[in-house]
Amino acid sequence: MSNQLKTALDALYAAGPGPAATARAQQRLRRALAAQASTAAPAHASAEVWYDVLARSAIGPVFVGVTARGLRAVRFGLSERQFVEALRRETHARPVRSAARAGAAARQMGEYLAGRRTAFDLPVDLSAMTDFQQQVLQAACRIPRGQVLTYSELARQIGRPKAARAVGQALGSNPVPIVVPCHRVLAADGSLRGYSGGGGIATKERLLRLEGWQKAVGSRQ
Amino acid sequence: MKGTAIVPIQRRRAAAAVAAARPHPDFEALVAAHSAAIFAYLWRLLRDTADAEDCLQDAFLRAYRAYGRLDGHPSPQAWLYRIATNVARTRLKQRAREAVRTAALDPELVAAGPGPAEQVSQKLERAAVAAAVDALPHQQRAALILRQYQGLPYDEIALILECSPAAARANVYQALKKLRLEVGGQRSEVGR
Fold first, then answer.
1. What backbone torsions phi and psi does residue A65 show, to the nearest 5 degrees?
2. B71-112 per-position pLDDT tens digit
3. Do A141 and B19 touch (CB under 8 A)?
4. Are B63 and B28 in contact (CB under 8 A)?
5. Contact B21 A124 (CB under 8 A)
6. Is A182 a catalytic residue?
7. Which of A59, A55, A45, A58 is nearest to A80 (CA)?
8. What is the dihedral of CA A157, B80, B76, A31, to 10 degrees?
9. One CATH from 2.40.70.10, 1.10.287.90, 3.40.50.12780, 1.10.10.10 for A131-217
């Protein structure tokens, strides 16, 4: 467009409403939404949680917890009692064992760990995570099977290049390991660094090998 | 999810090109991610801070109520922008029916640019352009702002305006064409 037109339009529009007006509008919006949420039926509250167990796998028994919204928890390397207690604490609901509700997740996990399935076909409930954690975990979902990213690369991908450490922490908070593949994120020197999903680094390596990742070729394919 | 790396599709049912699970976006996450940009958009369409605040609330409350139908939508951002565009259209129609607005612009909207020493001709020109934008069909006005000031790509604008990317492009082109006439016209008048 012509310079003259651009100048005139920019004078009207380029600056935008400004940070003060924006902050005010957002505050009003939050209050309005809170008022709406408290009067309406709780649209997103997780009233119930169900669980099931994959009794045997290459990494031992794997527990899966599920809400109406989707897969809420994956844990292994602990007892059923410990898992139920942890799930109760996290969701403030009384976990009920239900093959009808959580069996599909357990089945898919079994298939995946046995190498008979390459991708999960499950909705995942990350609603208890912060915005940043969800951003990080969703970015981890985009790492293709058999490949890896470094913490820094993932940080760059979500537009937070200096947040590699926070990325590591967010991955550590992953409530659904294996399904959301936080194990596909490594340190810059190619070392595995850590894994909080149960079983430590040995499990991380096992999962990567299962997925066909080749360590010798370097940290990126 | 937009921007996903393309992976070999192992199963026919994997509609989204994501290797693993599909996380559910929280509604609060949508608000945090988009409310500032949507507010700026409404502000540009309405050129009035109070109206923009009202419409921001209206748009997000509608979105909250319709949230259950969002699943599978290719772009939550476009979905929000679409709702905002429609809310703004209604408000602008309502305004047009009310008492004729004076030619004075909302003082908050005048750019911080030249200041008191500003040329009269520049002021006139801006008023003329503002009036010309007001006179555009809503679709063209929205397309122009989405493209030039919200910085969105045409395929996103297409989702927002519910038209093809080619039509979105045409809307921007038509808007600029009409505005260019107005700016050119003003200039010749001042030059006289």
1. -115, 140
2. 777 899 999 999 999 999 998 988 877 744 444 444 444 444
3. yes
4. no
5. yes
6. yes
7. A55
8. 80
9. 1.10.10.10
Per-residue model confidence as pLDDT tens for chain B (192 residues): 333 333 333 333 333 333 223 223 578 888 989 999 999 999 999 998 988 998 999 999 888 878 777 777 789 999 999 999 999 999 898 887 774 444 444 444 444 445 555 566 777 777 888 889 999 999 999 999 999 999 999 999 999 999 999 999 999 999 999 998 877 655 444 443
Which of B24, B27, B112 is nearest residue A125 as measured by Cβ atoms? B24
CB atoms A11 and B68 under 8 Å: no
Domains of chain A, residue spans: 50-113, 131-217
Best to test chain A binding among B1, B18, B133 (most A CBs inside 10 Å): B18
Choosing from A49, A106, A148, A182, the catalytic residue is A182
Helical H segments across B67-137, by residue range: 76-97, 120-135
Q: ipTM beyond 0.90?
A: no
pLDDT tens by residue, A47-57: 689 999 999 99
